[in-house]
Amino acid sequence: MSKYQSNVDMVSKEDLLSDVGMKRRSKYFMFTLTTLSTLGGFLFGYDTGVVSGAMLLINKDFDVSPVWHELIVSSTIGAALVFSLVGGWFSDRYGRRTAILVSGVIFTLGGIVMGAAPSKEVLLVGRIIIGIGVGFESMSVPVYIAECSESSQRGMLVTAYQLFITFGLVAASVVAGLFSTAFEGWRYMLGLAAVPSLVQFIGFCLMPESPRWLASQKKYAEAVKVLTTFRGSTSVAEQELSAIRATIEEKDREMEEQIALNGGSSLFMQVFKSPGVRRALLIGFCLQAFQQLSGINTVMYYSASIIRMSGVRDESLAIWISAGVAAVNCGATFIGLFLVDRVGRRKLVLLSYIGVIVSLALLGIGFHMMEADSPLVTSVIQDDKCGVTRTCGECISVPEGCGFCFVKSQNGTILEGSCWKMDPDTSRPLDGQCSDNIDLMTKYPANIDWANGWCPSQYYWLPILAMTVYLVSFAPGMGPMPWTINSEIYPLWARGFCTSITTSASWFGNLIISASFLSLLEALGKEGAFFLYVGIALVGFTILFSLLPETKGRTLEEMESLFLGPWFVCCRGRRSGSHLGSNNVQYVHIRGLNRASPRSSTRPGEQGVGGYNSDDSDN
């Protein structure tokens, strides 16, 4: 072997070791970036889950009226709705990283204000501050992760956002259980939200800006450096930036033509004049809206009531069982994390809808059977709103507050039942056989019981089973996929605006369900409310089955082409886009048209698709 050949081999080995090291470091960097980003999802889930447990204690300390209770809980949703719209403009103007940093500061401030609140008014201010942070974070984090990820891993990494939301829900249940008996335990529950938000803020001070946002600002040198860090290869980063730059420059040319012809138009009008973006926005809006309108928050809200219906009396035990329910939701999300880049987004969404529809129907059937099985009021002693009820179900539904006192035989049969008014402070009967009836207690010392908010039934297991099936079905598909799909289907120039619209749709749906649930129960009954959710979920399934294409394996720059052509997925042939976007084709924008061309094989130092090379300077 010649000396020259030996030197070449040695250089090649050094280059190879260098490439391996860069790729290894890029994996660690992406793991750190995703973990820090998804801490925002953890905060989202934690705040959503902890407020219900905290309100049990806050009601006692601040003597909160029902109106104030609704204000404290719903103010966060309202603030998140408004500021998710503001967050889209902010992240487009100042960057995704900056928006996440701002949300971290806001979350930390809100946690401190809530934990130290001396009055319900200050607590309300803290809840609004938290809502502002949630609005910024829920819009910017999925977009940031999607813009930094490779197409082969993008689904899994963005799905991690939903996974951390479920982590937050589990953590909230555990924290609520730990501090439920502590003095002013609600301060710890709410104030602890400041800890992960502070960690996220400090960590993100060391994170880079999204490379696609940098490219949109014509900062190409910075963008290629960031992409090199993420991909572990300069050549791959340059080739990816070439495609990004080609898309940006084509859109710039189209906008210049529009300005020359029409004098320009707002971003709103540009979105709705673009057929592909308009269609993507409709699908993204439906994904987020039907996710909420199909009753997820109702099921989570009703989980404690369903558990109580099974006979759990102790509030602390019910809180810990609720933690188990949240853990089921969290565990099932791992299914989506594992399958999203293997099975695809579309299949996960549609299969998830099928499971949700079946489980919602089971919930309705279960409540109907429990109502039909509700024990009768056999002893009518008092002539008031409690005394005139006919069944246990009617008794516990009286707005003035009544409970069902019953005597069981050893085989579980109800021997006698009566309805009595409750003491609002102790939730115990003011009179009757369950209060202080010595004779009856002597006759039935072990078989007399008091039901407040639940009724004995042999079908108690059916709603619990249906709720579990619902969460297992919802968590892999309907839970994470709206966030994943919405973070990837819009072109760079419209991504912030469109994502803010669809995120606000999620919060608006949340607000509608939260505000209408009690009215639905009164108007339709428990079973009627859940059958209504079945109908809504069926509408959502039909729309998404017809319109939602598969986005797995496509780059962000290929997405706009995917939404051109036939509206209905069933009408798409192989040439209309349903199978395009694989590793064998790449989309090049030519004066507003989308054409497929062979994948570029650009080498380091050669000019790429968009006319980019590493020597270009920012402009």
From TrEMBL:
Pfam families (UniProt xref): Sugar_tr
Membrane topology: Multi-pass membrane protein
Family matches, as SUPFAM superfamilies: MFS general substrate transporter (SSF103473)
Localization terms from the record: Membrane
Annotated source species: Thrips palmi (Melon thrips)
Membrane spanning residue stretches: 28-46, 66-86, 98-118, 124-146, 158-179, 185-207, 280-302, 317-339, 348-370, 459-480, 492-518, 530-549
GO molecular function, one term: myo-inositol:proton symporter activity
Domain Major facilitator superfamily (MFS) profile, residue spans: 33-552
Main location, first listed in the record: membrane
The entry's keywords: Membrane, Transmembrane, Transmembrane helix, Transport
GO cellular component: apical plasma membrane
Keyword Plastid found: no
Region entry Disordered, spans: 595-619
Name used for this protein in its record: Inositol transporter 1-like isoform X1
